[in-house]
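Sequence only, no structure available. Ideas?
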Amino acid sequence: MTQVPPGTRVLGSATVVAEDPADHAVNKPSFYADPAAWLVAETVDRALADCAEPVLDAADDTGIVVMSATGSERTMRRIAASVPRSRVSPLRFAGANPGVLAGLPALRHGLRGPSLLLAAHPDEAAPVAFTVIGGWLADGHARHVLLAGLYATAGDGQMCRCLVLTGAGADR
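Reply:
I predicted one. C-alpha cells follow.
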C-alpha cells in the first residue's frame, strides 16, 4: 500500500510487522478475536497516535476499510481441526468471522462510520478501496477513513499498514 487515494490527505500512518500475530492478541475468556484482527487493531492504534489532529473526536464519522487476502484463516483452520475431537467455543466462531479485522478496531475506538473488509490482497484491492473511500468522503458518510492492508510475510508472519485519511479539502 504505497499509494494514497486521490483527493485525500494522510493524517497519520503506521506499520507493524509480526513474526507471530498471536503475540499481539489480547483475548480474554469472554472475548476472542483472530490474531490477525489484533494485529490490525494495534496498527490502527499506532496510526491514530501518529495523527496531529484528534481524529477520534469525530469517531461517529470515522470509517474503516481493511484489505486482506488471508483474513481470519488462522482461527478458521483451528476451528476446523478441533471439530472432530472436541467441543468448539461459540466465541471462536464470532472471532473467526473475517469482518472482525475491521470490526475489532471499530469496537475498540467507538467508530460509528462505515466499515468494509475487502477479501483480496491489498495491492489488488486498493483500486476498489480508493473508490469506496472517495465516495464515503465526498458523500459525507465519513469525515475520516482508516485504510489498513494486511500482508502475509515469511512463515506465518504478517505485516499490517494503516493510513488515517481525510478529504484533501477538509478543514485542517
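Residues 64 and 146 are 5 Å apart (CA to CA).
Hope that gets you unstuck.
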